[in-house]
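Researcher: We're teaching a course module on how sequence relates to structure. For the next exercise, students receive a sequence and then see the predicted structure as tokens, so they can try to spot secondary structure elements on their own. Here is the exercise chain.
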Amino acid sequence: MYTISKQFSFSASHVLDMLPDGHPCARLHGHNYLITIYLRTEKLDCYNFVKDFHALQPVQDFIDKTLDHRHLNDVLPGHPTSENLARFIYERFKPELPELFAVEVSESPKTSCRYEP
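Model: And here is the predicted structure for the students to work with:
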């Protein structure tokens, strides 16, 4: 099995208003997000790639257009947690990237969430 990953970054705000009063994440705040997508396959393509990294440009384009410098409450259905963001990106790209098996979202250097159905 071969696995590759590629990272993308963006900045955005959100409010987790479902949290109790006084929780710091219930207030408007932002993060410099790091998104990592993971692709795998048993057999390499004709170029000996899992996937050409250049072919992942649509992921960057989507992040730049849809998520970067946005308020995630206005973009994501439901609560804009890292968990929901990871699933949102996975579901958006799985149809065009069949090798995609996981998406990881990091809000800070010490925290991350990985969605892997």
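Model: If you want an answer key for the exercise: Helices lie at 57-67, 82-93. Strands lie at 2-14, 29-41, 70-71, 100-108, 111-115.
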